[in-house]
Amino acid sequence: MNAKTSRRSFLQAALAAGAFPFVPALAGGKPWKPGDKVNLAVCGIGNQGWHDIQSFAKTGLCNIVALCDTDMGAKHTQNALKKFPNAKRFKDFRKMLEEMGGEIDAVAACTPDHAHFPIAMMAMRMGKGIFTEKPMGHTFREIGLMMAAEKKSGVATQMGNQGHSGANYYQFRDYRASGVLGEIKKVVAHMNSSRRWHKWNGNVNAMPPEMPIPETMGRDGWSVWLGTMPMRPYNRDYVNGDWRCWYDFGNGALGDWGAHILDTIHQFYDLGLPSEIRISNVTGHNPFVFPMNNTLTFRFPSKPGRKGFDIEWYEGRQNLPELPRGYKTPKGQGYIPPPGGVAAAAKEKGFSLNPGKEIYMADGTIWQGGSHSSPLQKVGSNEKLPEYEKPGSNHYANFLLGVMGREKTRSPFSVAGPLSQMFTLGCIAQRLRRSIKIDPKTGAILNDAEAAKYLAGPAAPRKEWEEFYKV
Fold this sequence. Notes:
Blueprint: H1 3-16, E1 38-43, H2 48-58, E2 62-68, H3 78-83, E3 88-90, H4 93-100, E4 106-109, H5 116-125, E5 129-132, H6 140-153, E6 157-159, H7 167-178, E7 184-191, H8 218-226, H9 252-261, H10 263-268, E8 276-283, E9 293-300, E10 309-315, E11 327-328, E12 334-335, H11 341-349, E13 356-361, E14 366-369, E15 377-378, H12 395-403, H13 413-432, E16 436-437, H14 449-453
Parallel strand pairs: 1-2, 1-4, 2-3, 4-5, 5-6, 7-10
Antiparallel strand pairs: 7-13, 8-9, 8-16, 9-10, 11-12, 13-14, 14-15
């Protein structure tokens, strides 16, 4: 019996037992003693994955016991392979978990967005803690299933928006609880740096042509890379970070940076899902990759304890928002936009706007915040701000301690899920270049039947991957 047949038999047997027999997980499913380390397997070991591997290793709380990548011979995998020569190596995460299930306590999915879901589902079903890079998943449906699996399995989960364990998390939490942050009128968020798809200038009229699959990947590796998505010809413009360009595989600038900019405001104002998303200022739109420029306005309804407000999201080099008087540049100098707007200033003076947000409060106060763990500061003010609790551990240590039952993870799927679903809804509006109305209680799209189909994703999963969609 070949490996593929064996794997299918394993998965089918698990399904016959009632989807997957979720393994109860209490502190990783085993007693933990002082000095113990988490046995960690990592999927996707180059680029961001290599950064994550190093960050996990620096905590001193884990052993890297397995490395998985669909192209183990690629240049970007070599650092991890050299650093951890004793870790077992795999091209297929399913085979890794089948063969090493008893030796692995947790899994990190540092893969393209579309591959987070099946890795996370299999790990949770086997009682393993799961860390996924941001965004949590690729589609609205997948993220909902991941939240349900988290609840059923009881394992430790964490999304890789690393700043959610940093200074801004504690500041936002404490300022919100103490009333320093009160009623909001609106939020303006922006990520205007050049992105990988900008090199094509919006001129994408078809999916890329077939190219030879690298020998180090092979057809089997390419099939695993595609995961739940239908088979298609290989092209290098899909891989090594370019996957983020394509609606079929990535969640664009919103899924990449939104999790680092809007995470705290989303959690501590209990935003959940929006009731409407409006799209404007679109250039370079096409049905394959994200537009060159666009603005999304997320409308969040009122909830008990707070009024509703909008979040405006600006992306694209030529789509910078107006800035408030007194805005501080990265060098700390006050900046007042000219009549032509900040975009004109960028062209004339080379002004570069860092990723971040401005929070306009009902009392007239404006807060300026950056990305990741950058703390808030008042625009146009040098007053000393109230103290807040300082972070006690980093995001990677927090996850590993969560696996051992010693800490509660700060960005579990129950918190990161609704935030990531918000991003998937925004991606639907970008893909179709249409505004959508949403039931914020269920996520159902109310005004656009075509848009509603994309809640489940761009295509039905391949047959051998269907089992991952059952909780």
